[in-house]
Amino acid sequence: MKNILIVLLFFISFSIVSQEIKKKSKLKPHKIGFLFNSATNENFLNDDPDYDYSTNTYKLQAFYKLTKWRKFDIELIVQPQIQYIKHQLINEQYVTPDVGNYLEKREEFTQQKEMNLYGVEFGFAAKRQLLNKLALQATLSLGFNYIDTRTERIAKGFTFIENFSFGFSYQTFANSYLYIGTNLFGHVSNLDFNQPNAGYNILGFEIGYSFQI
């Protein structure tokens, strides 16, 4: 309940700020919205038996029109977000004896951890109208983030996230849209800025709602 209240407060604040941007700036989004994503490493594309990893992600979204290419509308989606993560090392042998204090790290990392990731993600979305109110949407995105807990796969601190999402957008009312899709590929790593950097690979589903402003 506490997490839901935080997200709702964040969403209301974001809506107020967006309205002010609309009044005062030409660089305003044409839509704002909210997206929920639930993903895990246990899936048919990638199921690493060494660890369990799952995440629930809450994203605020601001949509900016970029261009139209053939029958595709191209948008930039700016997405500040919070990820609530659960992680546990399953195979303690993943932490090898050549790692400093490996016995202590095995004990630490085999305990289930609850972690948070905070960041902002920039997505480039291509949308093509299929029917009067139904559109196909594919999004490729990159984010810059901070993860607050170390594990055997990634260090605490700065990380990147990359996502490729695919789904459908349906116009529910005159100025609002429902999105349902999946992130076919999601990855978290830090580009070797810190060690370790094995990273995580995930797949999940997502649902979002947006409206024109």
- Sheet/helix structural class: mainly beta
Main sheet properties: 8 strands, antiparallel, barrel
Shape: elongated
Helix content: 10-25%
Order of helices and strands: HEEEHEEEEE
Radius of gyration: 19 Å
| End-to-end Cα distance | 29 Å
Strand coverage percent: over 45%
Counting DSSP H or I runs of 4 or more residues, the number of helices is 2
Give the spatial strand order of the biggest sheet: 1-2-3-4-5-6-7-8
Average pLDDT number: 88
Weakly predicted, low-confidence segments: none
Number of strands: 8
Descriptors for this entry?
eight-stranded antiparallel beta barrel; 15% helix
Describe this structure in words.
With 213 residues, the protein is mainly beta. 15% of the residues lie in helices and 57% in strands. The chain is built from two helices and eight strands; from the N terminus they run αβββαβββββ. It has helices at 2-24, 102-109, and strands at 31-40, 51-69, 72-89, 113-129, 134-147, 157-173, 176-189, 200-212. It has an eight-stranded antiparallel beta barrel with strand order 1-2-3-4-5-6-7-8. The two termini are 29 Å apart. The model has no long low-confidence stretch (mean pLDDT 88).
